[in-house]
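Comment thread on ticket #2218

A.B. wrote:
> Attaching the input chain for the structure job we discussed in standup.
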Amino acid sequence: MGARHRGRTIAMQALFSWDINRRPVGDLCDLDWLEPEQRDGEAADFARLLIAGALEHVEDIDTAISDHLEHWTLGRLAKVDLAILRLSAYSLLYQSDVAAGITINEAITLAKEYGTDDSYRFVNGVLDSIRTTDRP
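C.D. wrote:
> Ran it. Output below, let me know if you need it in another format.
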């Protein structure tokens, strides 16, 4: 597993945790819930960037996600799917140096690994809609 994929996985787990218990961003970025050897390096640094960025812009990200949901609300989404969508929408909207295709493919991979059987289709559809209408 590459460092950036591992960083996205860590960030998704942190965003999931934030949605459940609203831990402060600084606490999440400490990565104190990981093994000590996992808290340093490229994956951890990338995860911190994603966590801090996604939570800094969470209101705008949630609005973008909500605007692209059909017959759903944020409150009805599975928490894992919402964490993946927040992480990936942050990348689509605020990380112009990351190709949209990479962001969406990574989101699909995370959804297949951590979500339900249909999560990856749902995540793909929402993110593709954001990519085609909201990405600068």
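A.B. wrote:
> Thanks. Noting for the ticket: The helical segments are 3-21, 25-30, 42-56, 58-67, 79-94, 100-114, 119-133.
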